[in-house]
Amino acid sequence: MTESPIIPLPDLPELGALPRKSTFAVQVGNVLVGGGRPVVVQSMTNTDTTDVKGTADQIAQLWRAGSEMVRITVNTVEAAQAVPQIAERLAMMNVDVPIIGDFHYNGHQLLTAVPECAQALAKYRINPGNVGFGKKKDTQFATLIEKAIEYGKPVRIGANWGSLDQALAQVLMDENAASANPKDAGAVLREALIRSALDSAYKAVEIGLPKDRIILSAKVSGVQELIAVYRELATRSDFALHLGLTEAGIGSKGIVASSAALAVLLQEGIGDTIRISLTPEPGQSRTAEVIVAQELLQTMGLRAFTPMVTACPGCGRTTSTFFQELAQKVQQHVRDKMPEWRITHPGAENLTLAVMGCVVNGPGESRHADIGISLPGTGEAPTAPVFENGEKTVTLRGEAIADEFVELIDRYVERRWSPQA
Ligand code: SF4
């Protein structure tokens, strides 16, 4: 028998995302976006902004779930008047999160009529496709930017496929039709979206808003289109970029589509803040979009928010649903503990956990985690070895395995991340 030749290890590619694209750092309240800072998670409320308590409660909920900025709709004078009251209520609740006002059509009037709103917001979102029509468009846009200058606030110039600047799109369509090599209509519309965002940003700079007070976005609902649009935006400017797939959809479709699009861009170093625009399922908490955004960044190794549980999918080697329940219990436990650990045990967000269903991959996967458990599969002895830092430390048995494992996790965190440690 001939032995296989020993081949030297080839040069293996480096692990990880490409370096972040350099952008201006934008101060939004107490949060810095861009300039190489960690990618910021943001979300948006779906309450009626005039419902001060309901909106403040949902902002607090999103913030507790980990949203680092929260956007609210400001669509009427009443909504604008509610903004300072919401800010006050949040301050009383010790919720310190930048609030972003989302303006369409009448933002110039609202920011002028309700100065307390202009002051209370940490950033204004302006949609260049919805600022105004005809001759009024430029003056209304200028008013919005002047208000941002007056109150020292940054803006997001957020173009959107669903409210594309039709006049600009028509000009580009006509130019394209008259050219020797016309492009397909989709490419022209993408260009219109990019130009809408960039032209508006440069117009804001001309009016006097510094570049480090501008964030750009150009959202579409198709994955490939979004990737193409943002690659262009990143190539053509140094503005900080807000990523998000608009109208991503409900349930797994929304999660998969958003993750697919954003992961490609983040891997290329593009994007300074993200929002996952999920349609909540009936009864589902609005915080789902925050959790998905965090999990996307964490599974890509870009940030750490909460300990992550590795769990096997289960198969015919285990008839028990116990490991599924345990995986869920462990994930919920660490998520619930994280707000406290963030203060008392900083670093605990990096904890890795494994909950596995049988001996095939259980011990191996558990050894790779900081702390892991391998539950008994069908026909195995009813014992569950626990591994810490790659070493088997204890074997759990009986009815209380779940509670005992959760206790072991707490003790592990205490030992490793308490300030004394
Ligand atoms: S660890 Fe065991 S139970 Fe889980 S998927 Fe693998 S073989 Fe199946």
UniProtKB/TrEMBL annotation:
UniProt pathway: Isoprenoid biosynthesis; isopentenyl diphosphate biosynthesis via DXP pathway; isopentenyl diphosphate from 1-deoxy-D-xylulose 5-phosphate: step 5/6
Cofactor: binding details: Binds 1 [4Fe-4S] cluster.
Binding site for [4Fe-4S] cluster: 312, 315, 358, 365
SUPFAM superfamilies: Nitrite and sulphite reductase 4Fe-4S domain-like (SSF56014)
Alphabetical list of Pfam families matching this protein: GcpE, GcpE_C
Listed cofactors: [4Fe-4S] cluster
Top-level EC class: oxidoreductase
Residue ranges of every copy of the IspG C-terminal domain listed in the record: 309-410
Record field: catalytic activity: (2E)-4-hydroxy-3-methylbut-2-enyl diphosphate + oxidized [flavodoxin] + H2O + 2 H(+) = 2-C-methyl-D-erythritol 2,4-cyclic diphosphate + reduced [flavodoxin]
Residues annotated as domain IspG TIM-barrel: 24-293
Molecular function in Gene Ontology: 4-hydroxy-3-methylbut-2-en-1-yl diphosphate synthase activity (ferredoxin)
InterPro entries assigned to the protein according to its UniProt record, in alphabetical order: Dihydropteroate_synth-like_sf, IspG_bac, IspG_bac-typ, IspG_C, IspG_TIM, NO2/SO3_Rdtase_4Fe4S_sf
Record's keyword terms, sorted: 4Fe-4S, Iron, Iron-sulfur, Isoprene biosynthesis, Metal-binding, Oxidoreductase
Residue intervals passing through the bilayer: none
Record HAMAP family: IspG
Role this protein plays: Converts 2C-methyl-D-erythritol 2,4-cyclodiphosphate (ME-2,4cPP) into 1-hydroxy-2-methyl-2-(E)-butenyl 4-diphosphate.
Protein name as it appears in the record: 4-hydroxy-3-methylbut-2-en-1-yl diphosphate synthase (flavodoxin)
Organism whose genome encodes this protein: Aquilutibacter rugosus
